[in-house]
Structures are given as structure tokens and as C-alpha cells.
Specification:
alpha+beta, two-stranded antiparallel sheet, 8 helices, WH_DNA-bd_sf
């Protein structure tokens, strides 16, 4: 580990040196971080400075404090859940591989308006009414929790029966839309971010764990958005897998080729 350069916030400098040692592999995952006394002697700083540095690294998720033992570099195990996001169909019957492992933790909750984020994705204004359902699911084998949200515009639900059953499973919703004459396709975005406090509590996330957030739009005839689904899960507890098939190139692109 390097030297402390003054002036500057000492605890941030100490944290930076420890961080560098971790990323360089000098302190590997699962290994103990030098004790407070060792760090004090090494950098010539006070105990509060060392403790603040350790607290900063803990908030970043780089180290964890084990009571009675000390600070350790946090090991990052492989995700314990693989969520298959592929949709398969035979006519008007749809399935999603792997979704059978998730069980409801509580009764689904409903609300009826769009937000500034979800509205535009459905071609609606903020605050527009719709059918919506929030699910909290869990894998009984691993305990991993997953938040799943379904947003169904009134225009989509009309004539499908979905208005009476907005808590239907996604595959049943797809089937109802296909029965109504829609030729379906899906687009999905995936990102990771710092969780909001309610997400951290609901998903039971540890300190500094990111949330994996996917947004799936179901498109129908003329590519109009029919349905919006959001999935949120701990980024260190799950990974997503997809089946990718090639799209046909636009006619103008084929002509240039």
C-alpha cells in the first residue's frame, strides 16, 4: 500500500490506499484488512481516521465487518439465480423458462396512474389512469427476492378481460393480447443503479448492493406499446439470460449491401 499525501481529507486518502490494494489484488477477496492499529502505524493517522476510512469502504461494498473478527475484503460470489428472459410461443400459448421457481411473498398491490418515467414508455401522459399490479416474489431455494410490476393501459385492456384480472401472469396477458389479434414482439432494457430505500428494504439488500432493473415493453400491431413490465432484483444475487435471434435488415440496407 502507498503513502499518504497531505493536505486533504485523511480518511479519504487512507480509504483510497486500501481500495487500491484491494483492486490490485494485494488484499484478495475474503482476506482480512490490516487491523486498526496496523493501519494507524502504517499511515501515521488516528483511530477515528482509520475507522472513517473503513466505514467509507464498507459503504462502497468493498469490505465487510465481521463482529469479533475484524474487517475483510468482501467476496463476490457468482449470482445464485439465473433468470431466463426468453419468451417462447406456440400459436397463442406463451411461456417463460424458469419463472416457475418464483413464489409470491405477499398479495399483489394495485395502483392506477402512470409516472413521468412510465407514461412516455406507453405513449401516455404522466398521471394517466391504467391497470397496474406490483408483485413481490421470492425463490424458495435461495431466498432471493424479486419485485415485478405490470402496467396495462386502459386501451390495451379493452376487450381482453385484463381489466378484471390485471394480476394475471405475464404469459397469460400475452395470450390475451394475441387472442385479441395482436402480433407481439418485445423490447427490453437492463441497467444497474443504487437502490432506493424502499427497494433496499423490500429486496433485503446488503450495504452498497446495486439493484438490477429491467424494463420490458410488449409491442403489438404497428409496433404500438401495449404493456410495460419492470423487474427489480439484487444485482449480486441474480443474472439474466436471453435468447437472441437476428432481425431482418431493412430493405434499404439490403439494397446498399
Amino acid at each position: 500500500m502507498g503513502e499518504i499525501q497531505r493536505p486533504g481529507a485523511l480518511y479519504q486518502q487512507v480509504a483510497a490506499e486500501i481500495r487500491n490494494a484491494i483492486t490490485a489484488g494485494e488484499i484478495p477477496p475474503g482476506a482480512p484488512v490490516p487491523s486498526e492499529s496496523q493501519l494507524m502505524d502504517r499511515y501515521g493517522v488516528s483511530r477515528p481516521t482509520v475507522r472513517n476510512a473503513v466505514a467509507a469502504l464498507r459503504s462502497e461494498g468493498l469490505i465487510e465487518v465481521i463482529h469479533g473478527k475484524g474487517s475483510y475484503v468482501r467476496a463476490l460470489p457468482a449470482p445464485v439465480n439465473t433468470i431466463n428472459r426468453a419468451v417462447t410461443s406456440t400459436g397463442r400459448t406463451f411461456s417463460m423458462l424458469g419463472d416457475e421457481v418464483w413464489e409470491p411473498v405477499e398479495e399483489p398491490a394495485a395502483y392506477r396512474t402512470t409516472t413521468a418515467v412510465t407514461g412516455p414508455q406507453l405513449g401516455l401522459e404522466e398521471g394517466e389512469a391504467l391497470f397496474a399490479c406490483d408483485w413481490l416474489l421470492a425463490d424458495p431455494k435461495t431466498g432471493t427476492r424479486l419485485m415485478h410490476r405490470v402496467l396495462i393501459p386502459f386501451a390495451t385492456a379493452e376487450g381482453t378481460g385484463l381489466g378484471e384480472a390485471p394480476d394475471s401472469q405475464p404469459t397469460d396477458i400475452y395470450a390475451a393480447l394475441a387472442k385479441a389479434g395482436h402480433k407481439l414482439w418485445w423490447s427490453e432494457t437492463v441497467g444497474a443503479r443504487i437502490p432506493r430505500p424502499d427497494e433496499r428494504a423490500t429486496l433485503q439488500l446488503t450495504d452498497a448492493t446495486a439493484v438490477l432493473h429491467t424494463t420490458r415493453t410488449t409491442h403489438g400491431t404497428n409496433d404500438q406499446p401495449l404493456l410495460l413490465e419492470e423487474l427489480r432484483v439484487s444485482a449480486d444475487r441474480a443474472q439474466l439470460t436471453y435468447r437472441i435471434t437476428p432481425d431482418k435488415a431493412p430493405a434499404s440496407r439490403r439494397a446498399r449491401a
